[in-house]
Amino acid sequence: MAAPSHPESFRAERQFTRSVFAGLVLLGLVAVAGPLLSYRGDVHEVRGQFRTRTAREARVYAQALSLHLKLLKSELSRVSAGVGPELQQEKAAEDMQDLTTPDAGLFRQGILLLDAAGRPVWSEPPGLPMASSLHERPWFQRVLAQQAPTVDALAPGSSTFVVAVPVVRQNRTAGLLVGLLDSGEDLPGGQPTGENLTLLVLNRHGDLFVPDAPPAWATAPGFAAKVEALLNDGGQEWELGSGKVFAWATPVPGTELRLVLAADETTTLEPIRDRLLLQLLMLAVLQVGTLLLFSLHWRRVYRLFLGMERRAAEKETMAALGSAASLIAHEVKNSLNGLKAAIGMLSPSEEQGFAVRTLRGQIDRLAHLATSLLHFGKPPRVQRIPVDLPRLVREVLDGLRVLPEAEEVHVEAHLEAELLLSGDPLLLATALDNLVRNAMEAAVAAKDLGQVASPEVRVRLRQQDGEAVVEVEDNAGGPPPDFEARLFEPFVTSKPKGVGLGLSMTRRAVEQQGGRLTFSRIPGGSRFSLHLPVQSPPDDFPDVQEQTA
User: Fold this and answer.
1) What is the pLDDT of residues 250-271, one digit of tens each?
2) Fold of 385-548
3) What CATH code is assigned to 1-126+135-264?
4) Which residues 6+ apart lie within 8 Å of 395 measured at CB?
5) What is the greatest pairwise CA distance in the chain?
């Protein structure tokens, strides 16, 4: 379908197309912005809830650990009250055995009694191996100086806890009762707390008590300083080698210990991210589907728009051309009438015979052109009467014998004996005249160009499937392939001196009578097929012979 030819139309179409696609892009961005904003809000809300829960759990762990250590201190303080001035074991043996039972004891690693110099006096169970330099440990010195219970690591980096209480006699520290704990088994939080949680317990110096096998990032240099900063800020997001974790630190009440709970947010946020990706995928599918449907619909609407625009332009053009054509045809026919009268006065002798025939042929050609222009300007109204189609075809062929091309073209006719239908004989004769005339002229032109040796035109008339079919064939090779789609457009012709109205008017005349005109290529030439519905004339129609005479 031809596009509008004016630059303004092209610019308007491009601007409209850009506006439509810009609107689609904007619509897509708005559609995507919704899930993104929702995802951002969900992440912010879930992250806030997650961090609040982490801080709360860290405080619960710290309180639980503080209560447990307070219980251990109180039990050791109770046992220490039964130790005599001479640090005798017998007075507290029964209580210490209860505290060190393997299944239910609070100090399953054992209990040790030290004198003021840090030397082991006795232990439960007996023979508990201990280092000889305990008096140098910070926790030992702290208990001696403050005469208050303390909790610390047995040694830097050790997973064994000590709960030390002083044995005070007459305001003097006579010794220390020390309970030993395995941080991995005897403390709350020593076991794994969750798949994505890491619980750490350490002292001021960064010595880790929990867990037994801490992660690598918790043993890195400067970790104790990070924990101290974390205590001041509350919670922080740490960038680790394996990803990001949210860490919360809190002091263990009543102790010198710090508790750190680190939680991986990735697993918590994964469902939200997966939901976003699913929504974006669905939006992408919907957007692509919408774009495809819109493109198909737009293409159809755009073609309809171009067709309407083309038809409107054609109507305007045809109206203007029709008025001009009617005026030209009227003047040409007046001049041709005078020429016909002058030719009739010439004697058709042998010397003037060729000139007379040539003049008559040219006058007939001009008369045909004038008639075409007149019919184009003012299409005649269809007046249906009975038509003997074989007889009408013969009359058309006989009338074309005056053409100059008639002497060079072999015209072959195969007509049925009788075929009656209802139609307008003038329009049918004009249509048949155009088809046969075009075929004869094309065949002679092909001969002049050396394409054929003998120009031929074949006219066939038959009845088929309730239709009268008139076929006009030639051996002129057919029109150019790129011209075939525009055969029936007005003022479109492949002839050097043609006007381009014959086929357009023929098709219009046939369609006005309920028929159709088709074109097809045959070996060596062309075939135009005129299909007319066969309808029996009403009984009150005059006799066919009288109407066509």
Assistant:
1) 888 888 788 888 888 777 777 7
2) Heat Shock Protein 90 (3.30.565)
3) 3.30.450.20
4) 429
5) 172
